[in-house]
What does this fold into?
Amino acid sequence: MKEWLHNNRWFLLVTVFCLLPLFFINVKDSHDWGDDFAQYLLQAENIIKGKPQTETGYVYDPRFPVVAPPAYPAGFPLMLAPVYAVRGHSILHYNLLITFVLFLFCLMMAIFFRNYFSWYASLLLVMLFAYNAWTLDFKTNILSDFPFALFLLLSTTLYLRMRTLQGALAVGASVALMLLTRGVGFVFLVAVLLQGMVLFFRRKNAEEGKKVLLHLAVIAGVSLTLQTLVNTVLFHIPSEGFFTFYKKAYDGKDIGDTVILNLNYYVEVFKAFFQPWVERWTFVSSAAASLSLVLLLAGMIYSLLKERSFMDLLAWLYILLFLLYPYSAGGFRFIMPVIPFLLVYMVRGLLAFRITEHVSRPALVLAAFVFAFLLYQPGVTKILESQKNIPEGPQRDYAQELFTYINMHLAPQDLVLFKKPKALALYSHVRTCSTVYDQQPSDVASVCDNLGVGYLLLTKDAADAPLENFIRSYPARVALQWQNDHFTFYKVLH
It folds into this structure.
């Protein structure tokens, strides 16, 4: 490893220099309604204050568990906790932390790509991701996606370089960080187990078989033990609520229809990522998006026929997982953790067309740099021009007016039903709960009665059809309490 770092020191320095502008592009002090971000911040606050992770003000309803689990894994809140300890709930400083994680992820991508490509091709691939308008826009969200992607790529890189028991320990520790960030990281352990089985049955002697089994045991044992110690023993995060939350998503869903729906959706999402924000040369942008899909498919087919490495196994398992998961609204954030693998496939797809027989690789990379700059420049410019804008969310004046009213007129034990319950819990002292997208008026009435909901809140920023239908169906059960240009606040009459 020391020799590799020595040989690539200039490449890493250039990459670091090229990534530094990330800390000055779209670093904001405001957040949209999001909602998941608020639960992470509340859990980070609880870590500093020594409170249980489930005491966020959000009231979990086990009959309708699809809004959020009682608590997310403790890994990401642990990353946020030092920021809260020093700066409180400062969106600006949280955003700087996310930007730093993105910086590390891009640097890790550069290291990963050097396993396959020249330094200039590796740098190009990193820049294509780092300065994509989607990446620059998404990094304002305080979410676990970038940390998870970082730990997934770190685990993969360490695993590919693993030769000794110490290497297996390092992989296990990295996988533990990944599992503590997002539970979906279990797919990495499945990939390691499947490849381990192949290596075991292909062993040349008993000693080699023992080494394979020992490495598998160390990786699984270390990662699962650390994950359990932190989540269950230290922070008492209830696993039953976590599994119920994800299991509920599959109820009544047809797997075949889900796969087709997700495949159609994520193909368009992938193309949109490579479709730059241009206003005049839109045909070039559309062609780039279509070409990216062609190169990806060609590279995946080539790798399936010729390579069949651990990267291929992990990528296919992860893709299969989010194709089977019945939620077609994740956008590129669901694809993003495996974007390094997809970029490798795209380059392989390009090379499969033997274009380098007619154009030298350095010239091809230089042309791609120029082409990417011309297409990316409008999107980056638009983001720079709008980075001081406050999105529709808790930092808007009308939202602050709402929080002031609630904190002055409601008690901490009052329960408010709102589309964005965790955000309301973060910025007010009341307890909160939410409707579910497919609830009928009778279901909402049941939630109000069973949980003891005292107030209902509607906002123009986020439509809430179940709550609106409930108010129309049971007008005698509500009374208008307060409103402004964006919010309407009702009292529930039991």
Q: What stands out?
A: The two ends are 68 Å apart (CA to CA).
